[in-house]
Amino acid sequence: MAARPTSKTSESSDKVSVICRALRRAIIEQALEPGAKLPEDSLGERFGVSRTIARHALGQLAAEGLVELRRNRIAVVATPSWQEARDAFDIRIQLERLVVRQLAGKLTKSQIAELNAHVDAEDRARGGTDAASIRLATEFHILLAHMTNSPILVRYVSEVAYRCCLTLSLYSRPHSTECAINEHRALIAALAKGDEAKVMDLMHHHLDSVANRALVAPTPQRGRDLLDILAPYADEVTSDRVVKLPKVARRG
Amino acid sequence: MAARPTSKTSESSDKVSVICRALRRAIIEQALEPGAKLPEDSLGERFGVSRTIARHALGQLAAEGLVELRRNRIAVVATPSWQEARDAFDIRIQLERLVVRQLAGKLTKSQIAELNAHVDAEDRARGGTDAASIRLATEFHILLAHMTNSPILVRYVSEVAYRCCLTLSLYSRPHSTECAINEHRALIAALAKGDEAKVMDLMHHHLDSVANRALVAPTPQRGRDLLDILAPYADEVTSDRVVKLPKVARRG
DNA sequence: CACAACCAAAGTGCATGCAAGCTGGATGCC
DNA sequence: GGCATCCAGCTTGCATGCACTTTGGTTGTG
Asked: Which one of A161, A238, B107, B154 is at 20 to 30 Å from A169 when CA atoms are compared?
């Protein structure tokens, strides 16, 4: 039962994982929007490490699908397509059904208290920024996964939840997290009660409505497929002078 | 429509991904057993690259759960516990149910032909080494995942399938892959017929029986928790001189 | 003879340096 | 004026070098 120092499953060294955690959080709080550039030296300078470490961290995040690495190009925060977002949610639903199935009726009193405390925090954050709400809502699900004591499940649920988070910045309108809090409370109650089928259904519908609230329509306004976006404008290109391309300003 | 050169989603550069692929394959073919040491210099020397690249590759594989990285220690091929193996299979079942749900009745003729050809290859490999059989059986599932055209699903199914493969070397007896081939054929037939529920059930039971054939008993004879393994012998330690510790020979 | 401290070899942790590739603006040509 | 070309800079790709940690054998001591 040797106390495993810092290394979970992946997360090689300390400095690398610190940078990973920081970037992950920045991404899910939308401080770093999809498409934001992540040059190695800037990261290294900012975190007080060399490019080698920054590079390694970017590699890890790329493996998680949070950043995109292109050869000889600056790494950018990933920009999932609408379809990928929908797929991510479908996977997440299945994984989290597994989580609650394992947890139903098996939670200790202190665990239930912990969950309730977390939802209270979500409640308090309702007036604050969207970023905090989204992060807390995601962390609720990750907290659940942790309670399964299954490292693999924790890893996959975390990863896919972060990815879903990422899509929220892309396709979601603000203030779509409001009602999720009640659904979280309902989940806790059902978990405590211990009805497997019921709680799996609850989770399923909860995530499904989160997805539906988020992925309002398959119109990736800011999505990556700008060729398709520009298709409607293609006619006018030949006719008149084109308005200045609406190149999104990525950096303030 | 620039042809994306080699980079899929993760897999930063070429050299790194080459090493990753080679190691992955070596691991699932059991050329590298769980616990096998993977020193950075040896890898670098073997693949003709510097430690930097070998290190990066190890980082990626660690992110996939195939190798374990411990600070200041030589990286080793991962040694999942029995419980982790069971969890991996549970996750895999859910993910692959998703795969066949998306695929049921939507496969083209050429895709079905491709699947049949693969199973034929599995059949031919039946006389050969276990390693080849296991690899082909795993690749059948990954091939299915690819046909969903969902990069995320491909990634997760591949990862978890490799992890399951890894556990096969740990807990499975040889020749447990025999009957899987028929189940693969049944899956293809059901997919072609297009009955979603039926095919999901088939996949569920197929993977469940693979898991049951593989994870024969929760007795990790070669598992990592050697403290538990030695527990029964602890009594004798005090009484008589101990026989030479059965330290498993990891390297030929 | 058993045990503890010590030390050299091996291996990782990380930074730096140099070569190669991409980006974007300036230059020259039509 | 419009367009292709070229060049400078920035950024990544990768190897090497040094410091630190672990390891396992050796030596000294009770």
From this structure: B154
